[in-house]
Amino acid sequence: MMTRKELHDELWLLTKGMLQDSRIETTEATVVKRWLEEHQLVDEFKFTVEKLDRFLADGYIDRFESKELVESLGHALQRLNS
């Protein structure tokens, strides 16, 4: 099992480009969702996974959903880093 630090570092590497340009495309969101589900730690990412499920239900991430996901991923990274 990965440590919180290792999870943080891997999630940061996965999302760094998305977070830096503040934009998450549909295909990126799908990859992130899969990673979060595979690395779930006692529901650590449950809120973000549920949000991704809702946003991906129509097969498209719009700009408002993208902005909300950027914020949610930033919070997930902060929680892992604490």
Per-chain topology:
Layout (H helix, E strand, L loop, with lengths): L3 H18 L4 H13 L7 H11 L6 H19 L1
Helix pairs in contact: 1-2, 1-4, 2-3, 3-4
What would you note in describing this structure?
The protein is mainly α and 82 residues long. The protein has one domain. Helix content is 74%, strand content 0%. The chain has four helices and no strands. Helix 1 runs antiparallel to helix 2 and helix 3 runs antiparallel to helix 4. The longest helix has 19 residues. It is globular and about 35 Å long. The model has no long low-confidence stretch (mean pLDDT 91).
Q: How many separate structural domains? A: 1
Instruction: Using the CA coordinates, give the radius of gyration.
Output: 12 Å
Beta-strand share of residues? under 5%
Estimate percent helicity: over 70%
Count of helical regions: 4
Task: Decide which structural class fits the backbone.
Answer: mainly alpha
Mean pLDDT value: 91
Number of beta-strand segments: 0
Characterize the biggest β-sheet. Answer: none
Order of helices and strands: HHHH
* Ends distance: 18 Å
As residue ranges, the low-confidence spans are none
Shape: globular
